[in-house]
Fold:
Amino acid sequence: MLRRSIYRPVMPPPLPIAVTAGETGPWQITAIRAVAGESLAPARRLVVEEGQAAAPPGAWRLRGVTSHLRYTAEAERDRLASVQEGLGRPAALRAALIPIRKSEAWWALAQDARRAILEEKSRHIAIGLDYLPAVARRLIHSRDLGEPFDFLTWFEFAPEHNSAFDALLARLRATEEWRYVEREVEIRLARD
Structure:
């Protein structure tokens, strides 16, 4: 019989996520900017759906699924779980959706080589920890679904943490890991 420590976070089952941009949704799109590669079509509003719900057609729709933490060591996972707060906090009136596609050179690397670039060289997890709990994050995997992006990264934060979020992005984009990004779009959002 497998025994689990009550202190260890348990990953919930994969959850399908769909993000649809169009004329309706709780999030107002305040900016869409191509950071690398091609942008996405303009739109006014955005809705994020969990599960198998179907939003009305829009300017574009991106899909993915939540998954287990793939490059995270046990101590990092425990630290993240102890500091990160959930999505949907009442004060989190700002958000960002950042779809990312990495190069084939990235995916040709073995998983341990990708981990070495991600954390040992780029300090991706350590950088993210510097901004918790102010910035909540969810990583959505899309590559295996044949989507145009490998990942959809969703961030939520209070308006007063906007400059901290900008600093987080600047630090992450200055790392070796970001040399493997061939397409990235930054979508800024606000809700009332």
